[in-house]
Amino acid sequence: MESKKYISMKDIAKKLGVSIPTISRALKNSPEISDELCEKVKRLAKDLNYRPNPFAMSLRKNAPRTIGLIVPDIVTHFFSSIVKGIEETAVANGYFVIITTSSENSEHEKRNIENLVNMRVEGIIACLSQDTTDYSHFLALKDINMPVVLFDRTCMPDKFSTVIADGAKSSQMATQHFIDNGSHRIAFIGGPNHLDIVRRRKHGYLEALRANKIPIEKELVVCRKIDYQEGKIATEQLLSLPNPPDAILAMNDTLAFAAIDVIKSHHLNIPNDVAIIGYTDEEHANYVEPKLSAVCHQTYLMGQSACELLLSQIKGDTKVKQIIVPTQLQIRESSKKTHNYE
To answer: How sure is the predictor about 57, in pLDDT bands with cuts at 50, 70 and 90?
Structure first.
């Protein structure tokens, strides 16, 4: 005797070439789904004799409402603080957060998206991995009407709501601080040039040089991977120049700490020989010697803002929005020269 096959939403989705969430929404006459597709789904469901599984539905009703989160890592204070802002805002609104990490790998990022969609999250918040240059996996989320918010490292701001820091303004401010304190050969250590966050911070650095009529020298701009060892290589490259820099703006604290390590290994004084400013203001910036000047992010607010944007999308707001969270330059010993060399 042949066992009876029960038709599921997965079967309908496969025949129509759409996602399971789309089938679910169509069967509920969701305004997110076109009338034409709703009619097509219902017609096929009737033809196939589809019947909702009451047991599965009861499980779904009792399940917590969830949103997905993808971050490059959760080791740094920067990302862990953003995660806290997202999670506390989500919980306050009755949501549970599933946290995943890409480990700075685009393939892991794609896999995380697939898993989160399969887990039926209601929306996704993400920060791009360093090596993500193809955004098709995010565009695919739009095809299934999955709410998406990107933060810090973002893409296609015309298609996705984003939460970023004022990267250009902050780097211009940091570079100006170097100039005001007597530095003239200011270097920039950044990450991969395809990242929007790198472009913004590099732009602000260059604008400050232009505003002060300081020549722009390509050899003083080193953009490699955002990685401690890569930061050391970049700093060695800069210090080996015939005319090395007297200040370094590092686009995050990982690169700043790498630069400090190399500068000290050359027996140079910070800040008198080489002044330095980092980004994101890791908590341990206060515990290195000398204490690190840094551009401070309002990380908790960034997370809170990203979650609020996503929740508004889940409730039906389809407008694409960009939020810029202000930063503050925290001046410590690493950038305040006590004398200048002529």
So the answer is: low
Neighbours of 64 (CB within 10 A): 9
Residues in the chain: 342
Angle at 164 between CA 231 and CA 317, to 5 degrees: 150
Interatomic CA distance for residues 32 and 34, integer angstroms: 7
DSSP state of 120: T
Q: What is the DSSP string of 128-163?
A: --TT----HHHHHHHHTT--EEEESS---TTTSEEE
Here the tokens at position 66 are 């969830």
Provide the 8-state DSSP code for 284.
G
Check pLDDT > 60 for residue 115: yes
CA dihedral 59, 115, 77, 195 (to 10 degrees): -140
Residues near 131 by Cβ (< 8 Å), separated by ≥ 6?
104, 105, 106, 192
DSSP string, 241-279: SSS--SEEEESSHHHHHHHHHHHHHTT--TTTTSEEEEE
DSSP β-bridge partners for residue 65: 95
Query: For the chain, what is the largest distance between any 2 Cα atoms, rounded to a whole number of angstroms?
Result: 95
**278-314: per-residue pLDDT in tens?**
998 777 777 788 999 999 999 999 999 999 999 999 9
pTM: 0.80
Token match 């079967």: residue? 11
The string of pLDDT tens digits covering residues 193-246 is 999 999 999 999 999 999 999 999 999 999 999 999 999 999 999 999 999 999
- Distance of alpha carbon 96 from alpha carbon 76, whole angstroms: 22
The rounded Cα 236 to chain-centroid distance in angstroms is: 28
Closest CA to 93 of 304, 319, 318, 317: 304
The residues facing 70 across adjacent strands are 100, 126
CA distance 267 to 252: 23
Residue closest to 140 by CA, chosen among 317, 32, 315, 22: 22
Under DSSP, is residue 227 helix (H, G, I), strand (E, B) or coil? coil
